[in-house]
Write a structure and sequence with these properties.
Thymidylate_kin_CS, Rossmann fold, nucleotide biosynthesis, binds magnesium ion, Thymidylate kinase, alpha/beta, binds 3'-deoxythymidine-5'-monophosphate, 8 helices, about 45% helix, 5-stranded parallel β-sheet
């Protein structure tokens, strides 16, 4: 048997305008610049997949969905990518996700859905080796520009999501102070990346 080292699953979570998408891309670009093909960037929702298209139409206000149907669509959208994620990691390729099930849970809890129900649909997905939790102060977030046009992009929803996200912290979470310059934050992210232990096997999300 070959003992090739596995890839890692790294998730970027945080509020809108915390810089997480920028930094997820920077990490992927950095890893690929060192070793071409060693990392893939995966954003959720992945709007190009069938369930992602439904989500996209909902977010752009083209269609309506009940809160539970929307929650399941977001979760199904992760399942659309599950095999790809497992395959890459087995091949030694790092998978960097811009949002994951924690956004799914936090947004749905913020809308008042039941916690046990909400967690159910993500059980069995690969569990991230590390979740980088981007924390940005309201002042800095405000300086980074206004909210967009899509659904869910309001101050009220963001505040509720922030509170719920805070409660989801677990042992695989690392806080990133996202108030610093993009270059400083990038270095902080790289340091956390370099400390990931990839000797243990990838696990799955449990109840
Ligand atoms: P982006 O702006 O990052 O494209 O996200 N969301 C996301 C959920 O409500 N549940 C989920 O499971 C995920 C992954 C966050 C679009 C919006 O979708 C929300 C913002
Ligand atoms: Mg957005």
């Amino acid at each position: 048997m070959t003992s090739q080292r596995r890839g890692v699953l790294i998730v970027f979570e945080g509020l809108d305008r915390s810089g997480k998408s920028t930094q997820a891309k920077r990490l992927a670009d950095f890893l690929n610049s060192q070793n071409e093909g060693s990392a893939v960037l995966q954003a959720f929702p992945e709007r190009s997949e069938p369930f992602g298209q439904v989500i996209d139409r909902y977010l752009r206000r083209e269609i309506d969905l009940s809160e539970r149907a929307l929650h399941l669509a977001f979760s199904a959208n992760r399942w659309e990518k599950e095999q790809m994620i497992r395959d890459k990691i087995e091949q030694g390729i790092d998978v960097i996700c811009d949002r994951y099930c924690y956004s799914g849970v936090a947004y749905s809890l913020a809308k008042g859905l039941d916690e046990n129900w909400v967690r159910q649909s993500d059980i069995g997905l690969p569990r991230p080796d590390v979740v980088l939790f981007f924390e940005v102060s309201p002042e800095v977030a405000r300086q980074r520009g206004g909210f967009g046009e899509e659904r869910l992009e309001t101050e009220t929803i963001q505040q509720k999501v922030a509170k719920k996200m805070e409660e989801l912290r677990a042992d695989n979470w690392k806080s990133v102070n996202a108030d610093g310059s993009y270059d400083d934050v990038e270095l902080a992210v790289r340091k956390i990346y370099s400390e990931i232990d990839r000797t243990a096997p990838l696990t799955s999300l449990e109840k």
